[in-house]
Amino acid sequence: MKYQYIHDFKKLGFGMFVHFGLYSVAAKGEWYKDMHRVSHEKYEKLVAKFKVKKTWAKELVSTAKKAGCKYITLTTRHHDGFSLFDTCGLNDYDALHSPTGRDLVREFVDECNKQGIVPFFYHTLLDWRHPYYHTNFPVYIDYLIDSVEILCKNYGKIGGLWFDGMWDKPDADWQEDRLYATIRKYQPEAMIINNTGLSALGEVGHPEIDSVTFERGKPAPVAQGEKPIAGEMCQVFNDHWGYAENDINYKPVKAIIENLVDCRYCNCNFLLNVGPMGNGSLRPIDAAMLGEIGKWVKANKNFIYNVVSTEIEAENACVLKDEKYYYAVVKDVAMSANVNVALGGTVASVKILTDKKMKNARWLDTGKAVKVKKNSFEAEPFFYGTSRSVRVLRFELK
Ligand code: GLC
User: Fold this and answer.
1) In CATH, what number does 4-299 get?
2) Can you give the pTM of this predicted structure?
């Protein structure tokens, strides 16, 4: 089927974003060089400290898998211009020419293939370091496209390319036709994604684009034409995409899971970021959060990947469906009065707005059957010792 790869991408549902590079060593976020006005000379001293442990990819991919992610998008090169892959002589600003001395993109792809995760490549468009980025743009574009060609040729089949930074020079000639044709030549079924940034959420910038982006935003349904364009919202645990050791501004696990549900409600994918530390290990809190998210995903499995939105609405819940079932997601089940009056007490009821009858209703996480009255039910489920946040009721409509 034409555009099958886009349908396949939509079914992946949940992915992990990984911001990893030289900036991970500085531990002040991926914009450290720019925001702290660090000179090239000083910044390049980080290369000598870039020592990535051998097991980094294995740990990362296993953690993603346990969290329920089906794909990972890795920063092969970020705005600082440093590449995790072998640039094959385009320059020597890559992991091969650091104490690590290895092609980290190769390790990443091998590990993804081994564990059944689809690898995606983030690649920056803007470049703080390239000598011609500001002075001879066409020469810079040649370098950019040569870099992308290496990524498309040397690592086998990949899920897609995720570009970022065109917003830095909105009026420049980025030669997008040529860039995307290079991808299609080697990877005809790769998703082409180009982040439109914070000010243009969900916009399609070019006919070759296969998915729109909602950076840290609210996902929205994507208008469908002849091409079944996907949507993806990327989100960060705290405030920085790259590792920032002092950033404790973490979102609650519950809010992250709600983001995932909201994305699926709009038929969008959710791309959740981690910023590994300089040696490639995950920050313990990130790994722990992913562990909790993974437990939720596992308890609610069959819900995330194949669901699509439905025209059916509900009071106090959002409704999604797959081939067989409907799902009502209740974000906050009230405590029942006998458990804790102080916490509010009344039990929320959910009404599915349809004339059909609900049948065979069960909570996905506990498997417990729920009594329904025609098309509504009492969200009585808070049972001391279980969670009252983001609960999914599975049912049929007859
Ligand atoms: C922004 C930032 C960048 C980050 C990206 C992730 O565009 O420039 O640092 O990689 O968002 O969506």
Assistant:
1) 3.20.20.80
2) 0.95
